[in-house]
């Protein structure tokens, strides 16, 4: 343990905690720095005959697959398998192989880097289980995912509605939706009558509703921009329904993760927002935001992000997106007695991203559990120590 324990100084310094460790035992680290799992969402569209098209969108984080160096590039291979089951009997199945190649090693580990694939089935309406699996072609193992009790609607007769799907700036379906800005919403419908009707989008548990009156010609797709500002983050059900002559005639729901924007500030969480913005902005910028009223505050926060946008002439702000992804990752992996973004590990992760190498020492004799994070690009090693055995690793040294 080079440069970590010099002549047992750490053991002597922390010796007074030993009784606590004896009484409560070794508590394993509360964070889990495992590769991210792939995610999936699904949608429905009309098909020929009496069938419905089921589209499954698959999101594969780069950290969930194994990259192997090939010259000056890094390659990964994986296979997707998908099966539709009705009462444990397989109705249909598909398999697809993918190969990805990147030139930057950091993209093989970045939580913000993922690959989008899709699989398409055509089935008769009914209730199905969708079983998905991913096999790593470079020996990284297998992962599986079950989407149970998926109700496939009849998109041919009467009133019907696809699941609402959120699209990014390139028109691709999103599995994680930011709530601080306007986003594009896509919903397909079949009209049962040649008359005006209303499509409403809403959350069950929040005061949020968007209604649109449509003039149908039988079927169509509604694509619109909606503002999700103020909506809380987390895994949520986002719903759509058709109202015709005052009655609900069709409905659908999308279960999706919403990511709260830390530029979307309110008085209740102002302190937390300022803390996070302080990881990005200068002291002068944060002081101005802190002293401003709510209206000016929004403008100042928007300016803070705009000045750090690496591509100001495009709709996306990649710097802000990466920052929010890192905050979300810190909260998911390092939370314990404190929110993940307030832990030492969380702060280092948010500032520098994923380490190039992690060295874990949970059970070394004569010392407490500790972890080393190696960042080769700036020649730095961060050592975190679980001093109290409660899984809260504090920053102990920087080499």
Write down the overall mean pLDDT. 78
| CATH architectural type of the largest domain | Sandwich
- Give the helix proportion (percent range): 10-25%
- List the domain count as a whole number: 3
Gyration radius, in Å: 25 Å
Treating each run of at least 4 consecutive H or I residues as one helix, how many helices? 7
The largest sheet, given as strand count, sense and whether it forms a barrel, is: 5 strands, antiparallel
Q: What is the CATH homology-level superfamily of the largest domain? A: Immunoglobulins
Share in β-strands: 35-45%
Judging from the principal axes of the Cα atoms, what is the shape? globular
Low-confidence stretches: 1-34, 263-268
CATH class descriptor of the largest domain? Mainly Beta
- Helix/strand structural class: alpha+beta
Please provide a written account of the structure.
- The two termini are 13 Å apart.
- With 399 residues, the protein is α+β, with helices and mostly antiparallel strands.
- It has helices at residues 9-13, 18-24, 270-277, 283-291, 294-306, 318-334, 344-352; strands at residues 39-46, 52-61, 68-70, 73-86, 89-102, 114-123, 126-136, 142-152, 160-161, 165-167, 176-178, 182-190, 197-203, 209-214, 219-227, 234-244, 247-259, 357-361, 370-375, 380-385, 394-398.
- 17% of the residues lie in helices and 42% in strands.
- The radius of gyration is 25 Å and the shape is globular.
